[in-house]
Amino acid sequence: MWLPQAEDPRMQQGATSGERECLVGYLEHYRTTLELKCADLSPEQLGTRSVPPSNISLLGLVRHMARVEQSWFRRVIAGRPELPRLFGGADEDAGFSWPGDTDDALVAEAWSLWRAEVEHAREVLGRTDLDRVVDVHGQPTEVRDLIVHMIEEYARHCGHADLVRECIDGRAGQ
């Protein structure tokens, strides 16, 4: 076990009631999982790439998920498509690449950005009806579909995080 069940913050929520609470609960569960997978590591460890030729790292996953949160919640659901996407440069690879060394400042910046985007997403979702229809690449899409997509995105990347973490220090699971 990663943590004893009584100490796992994801297990403290209890049963959910209703669609919104269920969807938000799963989204928060995976957000917390990403944080847990990155806990107690040095900047160098967070920047450690997975199995070549992949460039996935835990730090890259945090940066990438900040980009994903920003894109769906600010640009699409909040209706701000004019905002430039985070880490949109060819050399940034959607957040998975960065110039220079992996140091405390880069890690702090990534976590700050991710946490700000998550907080904004919570605010947007809190005031948005799941039935609301938004435009996604010319297709009318309900907000609930985007939340399910976010859950899927986090779940997939938390699987990646689990494998990367196991390569770093042997911790896996949960």
Would you write up a description of this structure?
- The protein has one domain (34-169): Four Helix Bundle (Hemerythrin (Met), subunit A) (Up-down Bundle).
- It is mainly alpha-helical.
- The protein is globular.
- The protein is built from 5 helices and 2 strands; from the N terminus they run ααααββα.
- A hairpin with a 2-residue loop joins β1 (133-136) and β2 (139-142).
- α1 runs parallel beside α5.
Radius of gyration over C-alpha positions, nearest whole angstrom: 17 Å
Give the low-confidence spans. none
CATH topology: Four Helix Bundle (Hemerythrin (Met), subunit A)
CATH superfamily: dinb family like domain
Instruction: Please summarize the sheet with the most strands.
Output: 2 strands, antiparallel
The helix/strand series, from N terminus to C terminus, equals HHHHEEH
Note the gap between the termini: 6 Å
Could you say which structural class the secondary elements and strand pairing correspond to?
mainly alpha
> How many strands appear in the DSSP assignment?
2
Strand order of the largest sheet: 1-2
Oligomeric state as shown: single chain
Q: What CATH architecture do you see? A: Up-down Bundle
How many helical elements? 5
| Domain tally | 1
Mean pLDDT score: 91
Helix % is: 40-55%
Strand content: under 5%
Overall 3D form: globular
CATH class category name: Mainly Alpha
List its traits:
DinB family protein; 2 strands; 174 residues; MST-like; globular; mainly alpha; DinB/YfiT-like
Which helices and strands, and how do they pair?
Blueprint: H1 19-38, H2 43-46, H3 58-77, H4 104-126, E1 133-136, E2 139-142, H5 143-169
Antiparallel strand pairs: 1-2
Helix pairs in contact: 1-3, 1-5, 3-4, 3-5
